[in-house]
Design a protein that fits this description.
The chain is an alpha/beta fold and about 350 residues long. It folds into two domains: about 220 residues, FAD/NAD(P)-binding domain; about 110 residues, FAD/NAD(P)-binding domain. The protein has nine helices and 17 strands. The two termini are about 30 Å apart.
Length: about 350
């Protein structure tokens, strides 16, 4: 089995797949490593989610995405990216998590010591093109270049309040039927929060929204925003603005509001307070982060190369805590930018 690649791509989402397609087109050896299922983040989106972008704007590799309506739904996106992976015979390892990325900096002997079999050529000699060792939950590989397209959906931003770890609390919303006829608190005012509030209410849940700001978020999908605002205005869905959830207990919750503390009976809490990249993983790989609350990773916007040579970022992970800056539509180009940089370096370093 080959264990050395020109490029290893961590993340099997749409942007990771796009990077694999570009590597394939360039004739480079590559491996995509995904710790979950194919396009794992999209799989974990709400079952009835409709994309904000149109189908052609989330196409990758110049492969057409045909949907029933202008804006595709989650099931159509899952099928599209699956067909792309299968039809292009992408080199994918699913359910294999990248644990560490080790940069190799010594002479050949040191490279061999650090990497073992993964850092050697077919005849057992140290591979001179191995800049990294990538250790996973299953194996070890070496690579000349590594692309991190790991997204941000795996780690929720926690409320950090008593009771958050109770079984009735979730930071991911899937579908509404489970909450039918229950008393539900939805924390947040983003697209996911609004979808959860509307869908569970329509299944008969008694829904209360807890919103830190003054109202529904400005980036909520334009065809949904009037719906939720009208439901709040008519009183079908109760919303506490400028408020925060401060305690969760079996059977009830406590909310701090501008008018004082409110205690409500409660069956379930859907805390959709956002998500964040795995910053510890980025730092362990040597990537520098900004020293403010944004935690922006350091990279060259012209090439997507980080402060670690031959280590690149692609997709929403580039935004740090500003997870709304990058999405499929505007980060597809990262794949092309990265491969252009990798290929230019190969040309410049090729022996005469």
């Amino acid at each position: 089995m080959n264990t050395h690649y020109d490029i290893i791509i961590a993340g099997g989402g749409p942007i990771g797949i796009a990077c694999g397609l570009e590597a394939q087109k360039a004739g480079l050896s590559y491996l995509i490593l995904e710790k979950g299922c194919l396009v794992n983040s999209l799989y974990n989106y709400p079952a009835n989610m409709t994309f904000f972008s149109t189908s052609e704007r989330i196409e990758i590799g110049e492969i057409p995405f045909v949907s029933n309506n202008v804006k595709p739904v989650r099931s159509e996106a899952l099928e599209y990216y699956r067909r792309v992976a299968v039809s292009r015979h992408l080199n994918l390892h699913l359910q294999e998590e990248v644990k560490t990325i080790q940069q190799l900096t010594g002479p050949a002997e040191e490279t061999q010591r650090l990497t073992g079999p993964a850092g050697t050529t077919g005849n057992g000699n140290p591979d001179p093109n191995a800049n990294f060792t990538v250790l996973t939950s299953r194996s070890s590989y070496s690579a000349a270049n590594v692309i991190l397209a790991t997204g941000f959906y795996d780690l929720p931003v926690l409320l950090d309040i008593p009771g958050e770890n109770l079984p009735k609390v979730t930071h991911y919303y899937k579908e509404p039927h489970f909450y039918a006829l229950q008393k539900v608190v939805v924390v947040g005012a983003s697209n996911s929060s609004v979808d959860a509030a509307l869908e569970t209410w329509r299944k008969g849940a008694e829904v209360t929204m807890v919103i830190r700001g003054e109202g529904i978020g400005s980036r909520v999908k334009y065809w949904v925003k009037p719906d939720i605002e009208n439901r709040i205005k008519e009183g079908s869905i109760k919303a506490y603005t400028h408020s925060s959830l401060v305690d969760i207990r079996e059977g009830e919750v406590t909310i701090r509001t501008p008018d004082g503390i409110v205690t409500l009976p409660n069956d379930y809490v859907i805390a959709l307070t956002g998500y964040q990249p795995n910053f510890k993983f980025l730092q362990a790989a040597g990537i520098q982060l900004s020293d403010d609350e944004k935690l922006l990773p350091l990279y060259d916007p012209a090439t997507m190369e980080t402060n670690v040579k031959h280590l690149y970022l692609a997709g929403v992970v580039c935004g740090g805590m500003n997870t709304h800056l990058w999405f499929i539509e505007n980060s597809r180009i990262h794949a092309t930018m990265i491969l252009e940089d990798i290929l230019s370096k190969r040309v410049h370093t090729r022996p005469a």
